[in-house]
Specification:
single chain; Thiol Ester Dehydrase, Chain A; disordered C terminus; alpha+beta
Length: about 110
Amino acid sequence: MEVSLPLSVAADHPAYAGHFPGQPILPGVVLLDEALHALAVRQGLEGAVGQIKSAKFPSPVTPGEALRLRYVETTAGFFRFEVTAGERLAASGVFAFAATGSGTAAE
């Protein structure tokens, strides 16, 4: 079952400031972090360590764009995701989570 939810990144997020002066775009790492966090919260996995299995960034995100995270859990326990900026695909890939007991990720 696909889940779809809004993803919020403030237009004045500090990452925009130095990631390209005059033409700011959101760094991919920030976009992935926001998406991973939103997915973890939605799935009740805040105490789990997230791992990015794969990621692609077909188009940039500029300040103020409306973002949406869509994801589906696979039979293997991974999460395939897409982040759209309006109608454009901004990022896609696969996340995995590992519960932690001692502060280290399970392999």
